[in-house]
Known about the structure:
Radius of gyration: 33 Å
CATH superfamily of the largest domain: Tex N-terminal region-like
Distance between the termini: 64 Å
Strand content: 5-15%
Number of domains: 5
Number of helices: 29
Helix content: 40-55%
Amino acid sequence: MQNYFSKIAKELNIGIDQVQNTVSLLEQGATVPFIARYRKEMTGSLDETEIMGIRDRLEKLKELDKRRDTILNTIREQEKLTPELEKQIQEAQSMTELEDIYLPYKPKRKTRGTIARAKGLEPLAKILMTQNYDNPERQAERFVSAKNDINSVEEALAGARDIIAEWVNENKFARSKIRSLFLRKATIESRVAKGKEEAGNKYENYFQWSEPIMKSPSHRILAMFRGEKEGFLKIKVGPPEEETIDILEKQFIKSDNASANQVYEAIRDGYKRLMQPSIETEVRAQAKEQADEYAIRVFADNLRQLLMAAPLGEKNVLAIDPGFVSGCKLVCLDRQGKLLYNETIFPHPPQNEVKNSINKILQLVNAYKIEAIAIGNGTAGRETEGMFRRIRFDRDITVVMVNESGASVYSASSLAREEFPDYDVTVRGAVSIGRRLMDPLAELVKIDPKSIGVGQYQHDINQSELSKSLDDTVISCVNSVGVEVNTSSKQLLSYVSGVGPALAANIVDYRNKNGAFTSRGDLKNVPRLGEKVFEQAAGFLRVRNSTNPLDKSAVHPESYYIVERMAKKLDCSIGDMMNSEDLRKKINLQDFVTDKTGLPTLEDIMHELAKPGRDPREKFGFFEFAKGIRTIDDLEIGMELPGIITNITAFGAFVDIGIKQNGLIHVSNMANEYVSDPNQYVKLNQKIKAKVVDIDKLRKRIQLSLKDVGKQ
């Protein structure tokens, strides 16, 4: 294990003690948010990303050692494990290196080489490899035998070449050199499959495409591989063939005679038939892995921005799931998101019941003291928003278009059926839209992150790695914000450090049976919520109405005694200290440093005392689309339009400008300088102003630009 620590420390450029202590905490069951927030003294204040890096790298190293043991046992059973070979295997630093060493010993299915060996041709192959004979045919004559099914000299030589071809392919030094060449010079060439030009027109950019594979951006790799999988593209990956043969020739050809010519033939065959397909598969996998990593990072970044979007807060909300023929489903929610009323109105074609719809809206706004209106941004969204903005209410009411991606997934889920068994999917969808306005994080955790629609090629990338990254992101966001234990759903509670779905259900059941929790300490009464879970979870759970003001803060109960000592030294109450900056300024943190509690924790405590339970999300901001812009036909090149970033990919960002089609800001239109990462310039849900630079009405594509916006 110590080898793991030093290796990880070197790779991540951190101290060995930091790695060792972090691994120790993880193995004791501590969660990433808990370690990052409450064990800074042990980790040297590592952040969540660094802690996850240690966790993930440790898993990879353990997988490598598991494979190493399997290989050693397999070769040992073959009685071929020499001290030198064992040393090579023990010192292998990567899975690729390990597999190259193992390749000659790997149990094989029937191959041309194994058939030739079975016929007794391995001695002839060894003779040819010495390249000492100018007449290999004479050497081969000795191996012609009807008994061994070798009927001619040429058959004997062909079998020997098959064995040599496998030796070339299995030589770890040769593979390393060719692999290096692939990584430096291999291109990915994409061509349209014969007869698929029309059916595969969405891949027309790749009908005649070539570029270095290791420099190809994530979205192009994933697009080409998807096109190949669907049968529309033919893909070839490799460096110049003659260059690879030249490398192998220099390694294996020692003479200039007829035997050497036999070896040369075997080299060409071994490369084309065995090594090239094998290393092409490796390089494809490596390119795919890199593309996946980038796509997953983009997905996770987008998800974080969506989850951390500014909440409107506790308001009485009228939420609308808009529609034309089926009407607009209205729901009224109280400040805690409880469904109070629902109805359907038909203000749009074909019914056009505008007057009745407006009257009903006014009645509901007054009856339920509505403070904000949430309108889904799907079908009929802009038309519905336009109607609402024409209504004259007797007080200020916020009207907001809400991104409804994933709302339909939630409304059809077992969770939604459990929550609203007596209502159909349209009512559940409208409720989700309203709650998403009030608190995006609390509502979005009910939806599978993959269904929120903020990534690219999500079905093509490694699903287990995607799920792991998205779960990490949700957990990070939930614990960063904190959770009010008396009002949160079991879905939100399940993401709290150390809790999980089963305990979350127990917390809600206990709350329903016994009433609201009056303190963090009450959590210990929840069935199966023991000391270890309490340690992991308590700091992230808030009890707003507790008599102890620390219960609504991120100060961990294990540190309450420190705050009590501070208050005692100041001769005041904890509440007084939290409410007075002057009192807090009198605290000398050095007076409270102990062996277990250092300055990082004490500084966090002081920060919390100043702003207990502060929500790290931004304040809610208002937004309105351009008036008079309803369809793509209303657009003109040069227009500058307000919009909201709805998705970010490797090649740019998509923007909702208030019509059915989203516009695209390509990376080349984000800034005057080169942009490698769109996330450096825009964020999900960011409100921007962009210029229309191209309109393709036939393909319904809109190109936008952030360059020179506002300049005439």
